[in-house]
């Protein structure tokens, strides 16, 4: 069965025509879905014959919420979601003064190997389809009974390692017949896959591109981000300049501050020199601590000193606002905690897939 959320309006119109139905039925069906009607039988203006064809060919692939963590002030909710194949992903809903934002996953797991990230510890299981990413947002809207107005692709997975599906998702999310989320309200975060950033630049989208930088030189970046072994810092910055020139959009550089690793004033001065003259913004993020490594977060005094050095050198810098600190869990931790309690039919711990046991690595 195909997930109907993968289809654009034009694609569903073609399917309707191919199956002997009027093309306008496609818009009616999509309208119902984005109003939160997720059962074909409940779509009141759709003829029974059309409903039967839809039921025989499609599912409305909204992931199931299997666990939910709420902050005490209700500003943040972290959701554990189960997909149609029982794979597990996470998303985070955040309430700001302007409305609701969501941080979504783009893959089940991740293969990029960033040392401070829990999502990548067990590798990548599979890519998410565009419709599954849409499904994360619809699941969140159904839970909150409110519209999601901002999207961040910064959950589990590397978006540019799932390029085609992510681009289709961006177009679907932006479409006026669907979620109608403006491109400037969407942020895509990447560890820095240079050829894919170049492809993204050629598409001239108006999304915000966020680059996970985390070091001012290549050798130090290699220590925390294996991608730096393939694409040098110079290559990355060159393609960032190309991206800015082609799109006219400012780039955000994310900088996770790790105690006694990359958080002193000299590092800040070197980073300012590196980024001098570039249309950019630096977002400082005290690193999330995970049990699988020894990294500790910088204290807030040091974080503020780092920010002051950058701002004093005309590098616009902010410290990421921490929300839901009382339910703090690094990206990927909820999924790993859940998988540690689940067993497949062989008695192995797994994530609902055929990729073997994450604990004993047995197929």
UniProtKB/TrEMBL annotation:
One of its GO terms (molecular function) is rRNA (adenine(2503)-C2-)-methyltransferase activity. PROSITE patterns: RADICAL_SAM (PS51918). Its EC number is 2.1.1.192. [4Fe-4S] cluster binds at residues 110, 114, 117. Binds 1 [4Fe-4S] cluster. The cluster is coordinated with 3 cysteines and an exchangeable S-adenosyl-L-methionine. SUPFAM superfamilies: Radical SAM enzymes. One of its GO terms (biological process) is tRNA methylation. Keywords: 4Fe-4S, Cytoplasm, Disulfide bond, Iron, Iron-sulfur, Metal-binding, Methyltransferase, rRNA processing, S-adenosyl-L-methionine, Transferase, tRNA processing. Belongs to the radical SAM superfamily. RlmN family. PANTHER family: 23S RRNA METHYLTRANSFERASE, RADICAL SAM CORE DOMAIN-CONTAINING PROTEIN. Reaction proceeds by a ping-pong mechanism involving intermediate methylation of a conserved cysteine residue. This is Probable dual-specificity RNA methyltransferase RlmN. It comes from Clostridium cadaveris.
